[in-house]
Amino acid sequence: MPRSSPVARTGDSSRPARSKSATKPVAQAVAEGFAPVCIAPSLPPVAPPADLPRILFIEQLASLIGKTETTIRTCATNAKYAHLIPRPFKLPNSRRLCWYERDVLEWIESTRPAEPPPPRRPRGRPTKAEQLSRARWAQNNTAQPSAKGGEQ
Question: Considering the chain, what percentage of its residues have pLDDT values greater than 90?
């Protein structure tokens, strides 16, 4: 059987005739100033609704709570350390750890100490200036609650 040529004969109606421009490689067409045209319809970007909770992944959680990604993975997979981070979940058909942003922010607020710890006292006897400043502070703090108690 004879091989058919890539260019259709004039009498052959089964194949349309190919033009010379269709046989050019794409790189050559781009070099000449013709770029390939994308025919797919472009859709406008879809913004998530405001009522949907924001999901954080391990990278964002690490920056929020100040722990490394490895530490977070260890705490998430080991029950012994589960109390050190907020409770994670996994999206369907995914192995990635996820957190809801509101849960993380609630966890941060709940684990924050109520007041900062007292400053560490140096060893030895306090200086006279430290003794006087403490006495003034104690006097001011004891005077204020009694004043408040008298107002009630």
Answer: 25
What is the three-class DSSP state of 100? strand
Only one residue has tokens 């405001």, namely: 50
Each residue of 15-34: pLDDT tens digit?
A: 555 555 555 565 565 566 65
Can you list the alpha helix ranges (DSSP code H) found in the chain?
Answer: 26-31, 58-65, 69-77, 101-111, 128-151
CB 56 within 8 A of CB 102: no
Q: Where are the alpha helices (DSSP H) in 46-117?
A: 58-65, 69-77, 101-111
CA 127 to chain centre: 50
Question: Can you say whether the dihedral through the CA atoms of 79, 82, 88, 94 is positive or negative?
Answer: negative
* Model confidence, pTM: 0.44
